[in-house]
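Subject: sequence -> structure tokens, single chain

Hey, anyone have a minute? Need the predicted structure for the following. Not urgent.
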Amino acid sequence: MKHPLLSIIGTTATGKTSLALELANQVLADGLYSGVDIISVDSRQVYANLPILSGADVPAGFIRTMSESEYPQPLYAKPESSIFLHGVSILNADEEWSVAQFQAFALQILAVSLQKNHLPILVGGTGLYHQQLFLDDPHLLIPPNDAWRAEAATLSLVELQTKLKLMNPEKYKALNNSDLHNPRRLQRAIEISLADVPVFPEWQRDVATEYQQQFVGLSLHLEILEQRIKDRIEKRLAQGVIDECTHFLENYTDTTLAHSTLGLASLSSYIQGTTTSDQLKESWLLEELQYAKRQQVWWKKQSNILWYDAQQLEGIAE
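Reply:
Had a minute. Here:
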């Protein structure tokens, strides 16, 4: 019998982390597992420099620790509890993070979960990471090519499209319209085309075969989602997100992946004095809602997801 792996997915602001913590406490109370590994599946919360903006809220009572040496990165744990939170604030903004790096990171944790009889729960909004965790694709392992990326930064969108079309016409034809107009994805497609295909690690295959992944999706009516996002924006402003972003913008160039964190563009305009407080909130809200709609469209195309109304599940594990 395969070990269960729960993936909690859905749009932003649907309470995915709260549900994961409720389930973790319940399965431990029932004695079903000796521990729970909650793995953040968020490509921005992984950075330590924007914890307020990215929503990398560590639950109350959890502290940062390296005492669990079997795990690949620092983690958060609650004293006298067997719940461990992974993948939050583990990188600096100038470090790379990709689906391949997440895959290797998560599989290392899953290997420990097997040994310790822990229940692993993936939770977060980066759908590609959930979906491709067990994908046996060696192309994911191709590392960044610094020389190519320096060259790519000087090329226009059309030049990137033309280069990929000449180098790898099959890959070019396979890209959808969104990918064809995304410079970062075009750069990566060319980067893969330039590289030799590596060998996929055997240990990752072995761990992947031990698990059965189940997707649970949370959804909310648009009106409720919009109000939750508005409330969350007000909370982050009260927490000091403007000071956090001011410091970040002063210390990191706009080439880092962390610069695409939702809300940063709106906050940058406000910090520079080109927008008012009301305009900041309005544009930030619009960014979040547009992102939520993209998430919703992406997930609705996927199969084998058990969908629930997020409000109906609140407190279900109590």
